[in-house]
């Protein structure tokens, strides 16, 4: 069967191996919905500009809607029946022509597969962008809830994976919230760049027909038509940016996953894994493995590879369209599919964790996390910071040698290092540098005191509520009712 749309000059009897090599139906089938939606908008524009008749448009519209419903009802069956087509675009156009006759052959007037594919892919990635953003909101909500629950739980804060200063666990959760907030904002900013419509650019040079590209763009929910037809059909910056946004989000997930893996180890023992989200060993019966976190950490490499893949495909392409661009979809699809499940599973995994508050309390009390507070106290008493830093270092060294901690030293012992201070000052010092007070006293904006964490939680909740409302509205408008303009 000759199902090629490009056999005007070429002989359609090409080598079967080339036919298989050239085919993209196996992966671009998932663009079916947006290919039909874009064709509906295009054919309506052709009718409005008198390029095709209103009667032809009605036939095309009804035929496309029929095909839409057929695929939606049983996508697997439709795929199997049509998998010999070169791509989803030729499959739908051929099916339409078989269904309605010559009017179906008029659908492709004033467009090329080059601008058609670019449009379909943009529409698909807009949908994926919204779905990923929605799942990010769910994860951010979970982190806010954890921060509220844990805002007064003390834990060691780390730099270089070495104990540094006492912080609240709620403050730690909010640090991850900020990273995912940037991921969310990045998706929103990118979504505006996605909403540029290539349809009407033709193969590369535009068209001689008197089309109305603004009408098509508006009908499809784009902000505007693209400016340059040559760029429009060859541009895949939006795929690279999609893969980048997901790769960076994946890195943030991986960083959180790494912490949870460390925290669940017997050496740290900060958290206990729930049986629903952990696996055992086939050989060692005592094991409970953090497979969820490890898989998320592993997926981050996949996201980075997908970004690298599209950049390598693009790096040496001359204008305009080249067949290399057929390789743009698999990496984008793979990143989308995997980031969505990673976000979902991380949200549930976090909810299931049990915090070992006894271990965290023990670590904060038996540590040198309060050393900076000691130095800060001395500075407030008039010491130069470097002198205060040096004296504190000597006290810590003394404690290590004696196998004790700063708060366990007597006032007399401390006075040997802090001779300028009175015993009353030293009593005050020992009260101020307790781990709890160290946390409570950090009340600068963005600090870890429960008061400041509480303020950040209130702001985050209000901000997230607004974003969830907007995302739900966009999803309802652009995803849940795709045929709203034509039914």
Write up this protein.
- With 487 residues, this protein is mainly alpha-helical.
- The protein has three domains: 16-105, Fumarase C, Chain B, domain 1 (Orthogonal Bundle), CATH 1.10.275; 113-151 and 169-209 and 219-355, Fumarase/aspartase (Central domain) (Fumarase C, Chain A, domain 2, Up-down Bundle), CATH 1.20.200.10; 371-433, Ribonucleotide Reductase Protein R1, domain 1, CATH 1.10.40.30.
- The chain is 65% helix and 4% strand.
- The protein contains 21 helices and six strands.
- It has helices spanning 16-22, 25-28, 32-48, 54-73, 75-82, 88-100, 102-105, 113-150, 169-194, 213-219, 229-234, 237-263, 291-314, 328-352, 357-365, 371-380, 385-402, 411-417, 423-432, 435-440, 450-478; strands spanning 154-159, 162-168, 196-197, 224-225, 271-272, 354-355.
- Strands 1-2 form a two-stranded antiparallel ribbon. It has a two-stranded parallel ribbon with strand order 3-4. The chain has a two-stranded antiparallel sheet with strand order 5-6.
- The longest helix has 38 residues, at 113-150.
- The chain is elongated.
- The relative contact order is 0.11.
Secondary-structure blueprint:
Layout: H1 16-22, H2 25-28, H3 32-48, H4 54-73, H5 75-82, H6 88-100, H7 102-105, H8 113-150, E1 154-159, E2 162-168, H9 169-194, E3 196-197, H10 213-219, E4 224-225, H11 229-234, H12 237-263, E5 271-272, H13 291-314, H14 328-352, E6 354-355, H15 357-365, H16 371-380, H17 385-402, H18 411-417, H19 423-432, H20 435-440, H21 450-478
Helix pairs in contact: 3-4, 3-8, 3-10, 4-5, 4-6, 8-9, 8-14, 8-21, 9-12, 12-13, 12-14, 13-14, 16-17, 18-19
């Amino acid at each position: 069967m000759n199902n090629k749309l490009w056999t005007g000059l070429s002989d359609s009897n090409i080598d079967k191996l080339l036919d298989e090599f050239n085919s993209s139906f196996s992966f671009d089938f998932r663009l079916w919905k947006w290919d039909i939606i874009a064709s509906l908008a295009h054919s309506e524009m052709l009718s409005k500009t008198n390029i095709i008749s209103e009667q032809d448009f009605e036939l095309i519209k009804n035929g496309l809607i029929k095909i839409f419903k057929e695929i939606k009802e049983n996508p697997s069956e439709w795929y199997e029946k049509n998998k010999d087509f070169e791509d989803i675009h030729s499959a739908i156009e051929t099916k339409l022509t078989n269904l309605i006759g010559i009017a179906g052959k008029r659908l492709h007037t004033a467009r090329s597969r080059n601008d058609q594919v670019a449009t379909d892919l943009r529409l698909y990635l807009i949908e994926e962008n919204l779905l990923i953003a929605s799942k990010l909101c769910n994860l951010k909500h979970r982190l806010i809830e954890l921060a509220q629950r844990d805002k007064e739980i003390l834990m060691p804060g780390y730099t270089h994976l070495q104990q540094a200063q006492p912080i609240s666990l709620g403050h730690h959760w909010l640090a991850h919230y900020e990273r995912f907030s940037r991921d969310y904002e990045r998706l929103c900013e990118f979504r505006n760049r996605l909403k540029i419509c290539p349809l009407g650019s033709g193969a590369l040079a535009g068209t001689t027909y008197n089309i109305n590209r603004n009408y098509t763009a508006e009908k499809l929910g784009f902000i505007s038509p693209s400016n340059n037809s040559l760029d429009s059909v060859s541009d895949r910056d939006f795929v690279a940016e999609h893969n980048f946004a997901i790769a960076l989000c994946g890195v943030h997930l991986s960083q959180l996953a790494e912490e949870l893996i460390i925290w669940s180890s017997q050496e740290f023992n900060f958290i206990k894994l729930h049986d629903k989200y952990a696996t055992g060993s086939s050989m060692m019966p005592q094991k409970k493995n953090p497979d969820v976190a490890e898989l998320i950490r592993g997926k981050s490499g996949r996201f980075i590879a997908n970004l690298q893949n599209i950049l390598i495909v693009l790096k040496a392409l001359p204008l305009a369209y080249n067949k290399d661009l057929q390789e743009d979809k698999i990496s984008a699809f793979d990143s989308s599919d995997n980031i969505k499940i990673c976000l979902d599973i991380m949200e549930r995994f976090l909810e299931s964790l049990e915090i070992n508050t006894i271990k965290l309390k023990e670590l904060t009390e038996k540590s040198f996390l309060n050393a900076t507070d000691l130095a800060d106290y001395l500075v407030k008493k008039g010491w130069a910071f470097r002198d205060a830093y040096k004296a504190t270092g000597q006290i810590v060294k003394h404690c290590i040698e004696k196998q004790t901690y700063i708060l366990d030293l007597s006032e007399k012992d401390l006075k040997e290092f802090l001779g300028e201070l009175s015993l009353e000052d030293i009593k005050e010092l020992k009260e101020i540098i307790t781990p709890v007070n160290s946390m409570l006293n950090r009340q600068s904006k963005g600090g870890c005191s429960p008061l400041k964490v509480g303020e950040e939680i209130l702001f985050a909740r209000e901000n997230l509520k607004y974003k969830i409302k907007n995302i739900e509205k966009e999803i309802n408008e652009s995803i849940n009712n795709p045929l709203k303009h034509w039914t």
